[in-house]
Amino acid sequence: MKTISIVIPARNERAAIERTIRAIPKDELERMGYEVQILVVDNDSDDGTGELAKQAGAEVVLEPTRGYGKAYKTGFANATGEIIATADADLTYPVEEIPGFIKLLEDETLDFITTNRFAKMDKNAMSWRNKFGNSVLSFTTRLLFQIDLVDSQSGMWVFRRSILDNLVLRSNGMPLSEELKLEACHFAKCRWREMPIEYKVRIGKIKLRGWRDGLQNLFYLIRKRIAR
User: Fold this and answer.
1) Strand pairing report for 112-121 and 83-86
2) Is the distance from CB of 145 to CB of 179 less than 8 angstroms?
3) Which residues pair with 34 in a beta bridge?
4) In CATH, what number does 2-226 get?
5) Which of 91, 108, 113, 201 is the most core-located residue (most Cβ within 10 A)?
């Protein structure tokens, strides 16, 4: 049987973690012939997120060192699937579209699919500041690396686990999102597509640190261009 791991990093996401897990179309994936691992990475939560995830049917792995990139690296290391899909734990990403992305991956023999949140974004899903910051980061990505990405910061991906062996992922923070795309689409020369998705309003407290995270990501792009 084919296998897929759906990796979800989570820190203090009790408001939406159960609904996020239950929104995953596990039955549909199983009908497609996939054994499904739903893997939540509890990134030092203190609100019971991990327990709620277990109750909703997910496998939970603890990562006490905080960091978006650190959580994802732990998730990838514990993922058992031949294919890995990702989503946030706040109901922003359309996990119901995962079966369609897997079919696209198979039909077009792709290695990596990333997503474009701006194609069908709810009007209140992102502040003007974050929209501006994302546009600057995506423009810089296209300029420095010559890859046609509309949304360099999206956190929903579907990819073959085997490509991880060829990726150099150094960031333990927010830049992991852009670094993964750069490694897959530019350095490793994977067969890839960027697909439009609906992006919804976040459930729960916003953790993004605005300008600080944006500048960190910008400087990371420049360092990545100078020295991989």
Assistant:
1) unpaired
2) no
3) 2
4) 3.90.550.10
5) 113
Asked if residues 185 and 192 have their Cβ atoms less than 8 Å apart, the reply is: yes
Q: Do residues 76 and 164 touch, judged by C-beta distance below 8 A? A: yes
Instruction: Give CA–CA dist 166/106, Å, rounded.
Output: 20
CB atoms within 10 A of CB 163: 18
The pLDDT tens digits for 56-78 are: 999 999 999 999 999 999 999 99
What percentage of the chain's residues is helix, strand, coil (to nearest 5)? 40, 20, 35
Cα dist from 227 to 80, 170, 221, 222, whole Å: 31, 12, 10, 9
What separation in angstroms does the CA of 161 have from each of 47, 58, 84, 177?
A: 31, 20, 6, 16
Q: Please give the single-letter amino acid code of residue 219.
A: F
Q: For strand 2-10 and strand 83-86, is the pairing parallel, antiparallel, or unpaired?
A: parallel
Coil, strand or helix: which one is 42? Answer: strand
Strand order in the sheet with 192-199: 59-62, 34-42, 2-10, 83-86, 157-160, 112-121, 192-199
**For the segment 1-51, what is each residue's pLDDT rounded down to a tens digit?**
899 999 999 999 999 999 999 999 999 999 999 999 999 999 999 999 999
Q: What is the pTM of this model?
A: 0.96
Rg (CA), the chain: 16
Q: Do the strands 83-86 and 34-42 form a parallel or antiparallel pair, or are they unpaired?
A: unpaired
In the chain, where the domains are located: 2-226
Q: How far apart are CA 49 and CA 198, in angstroms?
A: 25
Q: Report residue 86: phi and psi, to 5°.
A: -130, 160
